[in-house]
Amino acid sequence: MASTSNGLEFAIEAARIAEENKAEEVTVMDLRGLSSVTDFFVICSGTSDRQMRAVSDRITEYARTLGDAPLSVTGYESANWILLDFFDVVVHIFTSPARRYYDLELLWGDAPRIEWRRLEASAAS
User: CB of 54 within 8 A of CB of 21?
Assistant: First the structure.
């Protein structure tokens, strides 16, 4: 990410974009101090390959508005697990079976979860 972007803010907005595009079980994990690879994971599940690609596209479009782009995109064609690497934020968009299989939430169980929903959205839930 460019130095003008804040990793936490980007992760939160990516989570919101994922939810707005009907991704399920959206989670933001704080890996600062736990990983030398990245600071935040955004993890979500998609219901179809088309929907997963739409989430990926929208998050990438948002990054471009900040002058950023993913360092790499993996899995876009197979859409079983799409990974968007923004250096300090890594977005994982899984099918439900792939998410259960890889279980990143368990693997990184020590990582704090970040509350990313807007207050008004939380109150309505």
Answer: yes
Cβ atoms of 74 and 98 within 8 Å: the answer is: no
**pTM across the whole model:** 0.90
More confident residue, 119 or 110: 110
What H or E segment, with its residue span, contains residue 12? helix 7-20
Residues 51 and 55: their CA atoms lie apart, in Å, by: 6
Number of H helices, E strands in the chain: 5, 5
Q: How far apart are CA 83 and CA 94, in angstroms?
A: 9
* Separation in Å, CA 124 to CA 25, 41, 118, 119: 17, 25, 10, 9
